[in-house]
Amino acid sequence: MDHWPKDVGIRAIHFVIPSLYVDQTDLEQYDQVSEGKYTVGLGQKQMGFCTDLEDVNSLCLTAVSQLIENNGISYLDIGRLEVGTETIIDKSKSVKTVLMKLFEPSGNFQVEGIDTTNACYGGTAALFNALSWMESSAWDGRLAVVVAADIAIYAKGNARPTGGAGAVAMLIGPNASLVIERGLRGTYMNHAYDFFKPDLTSEYPVVDGKLSIECYLNALDQCYKSYLSKCGGGGANVDLNEFDSFVFHTPYCKLVQKSLARLYLNDFVNSDTKDEDYPGLGQYKDVHLPTTFFDRDIEKTFMERSKTIYEDKTKPSLLLASRVGNMYTASVYSGLVSYLVSLPPEHLPGKKIGVFSYGSGLASSMYSIRIVDNGLPSLIANLKKGIDRLEERIRLTPEQFTEVLEVRQKSLHQAPYIPVSNKDQLFPGTWYLSCIDEMHRRYYERKE
After folding, report:
1. Catalytic residue numbers?
2. Nearest to 243 by CA among 259, 258, 262, 263
3. Cβ atoms within 10 A of the Cβ of 442, count?
4. What is the reported pTM?
5. Average model confidence (pLDDT) for the chain?
6. What are the backbone dihedrals phi and psi of residue 330, each rounded to the nearest 5 degrees, phi first?
């Protein structure tokens, strides 16, 4: 159809990471667990975290303001602003409305969109909303901004090393560098209590670890099947070779390696020429996918067989996940960022990226991105400036990290409240919470 705007997708990206981190080797010693449990077993190197100076509003303020400034955009050019987050600090007032503070000087108050919430999937749902607006009769020709942000922290125990924090803001419009492929989307939704946050007085979730892994891998199977059904010929001849990279929602890095192996297993099961294309795997030819989620033999075999594919297509996407941790809604987009900076810009045009987004509860989708040379060098240059921030962070001890989380938990919902942490530790240009008044109204300032 000739009336669709051309090459709709992501025109620019900006990501925000905390200025503080704890090293996972330090955490292993502090928690008195076996050496390598977090670094090898989970695949994590470092974990970023926020003090009481930062909340989801401040993360989004920082991400959106810096996206606009770094790309020379006017706030007048934005017609839709969508937020994806599961970090809820108010049951009524959206993060989006707080972000309108940035639009006040321009006089632009005609900005559609609102918050979307469902665990780690909210950012993807927000992106889909922005794309749908741009392809609808409501579109007024302006650009959209999508921001995904979360602070992922856990109570003491096995899950705490899988935390993290961050935000990713994306400029959405036609003539994009990262074009969302039209009509190629697989979705799987179901009801499960694998990870949820029923206690509104705490930032900590309730997690059923084993069920969460099963839900994630099953959703991956179902989304891949659905995605392939949208491809030409019902996807009969489509497999991992179709993609130059595959990025995943990343609760922790080792699960992503297992997920890439899982797609390889799907390709094997779907193949009509198993003996020819997958020699040496004949003993698995009658395998039934739903029975294999915790089959260690199959997991080990297919991880080993897909290792080269993983190293080439997916491992480059884990830079931020391994050094910052799980950003919940922003996680899969931090993987996209990491892949984009892993190659020279001139090698990117023409590449196809598969994207798997998962949020507990559960909601999941798979779609694909085609890279074209529409202002690509500028997009990559801005991202590399952000990557440099990894080396500018401040390393704190596990004791200091634990103390920060205790302060966050004790101060949650306090009013009035003035944050006690050190503003000097924040990166320049960071928005932060200056105070909460007696009516729970939050006020923000920006560090110069």
Report:
1. 86, 120, 249
2. 263
3. 18
4. 0.97
5. 96
6. -90, -5
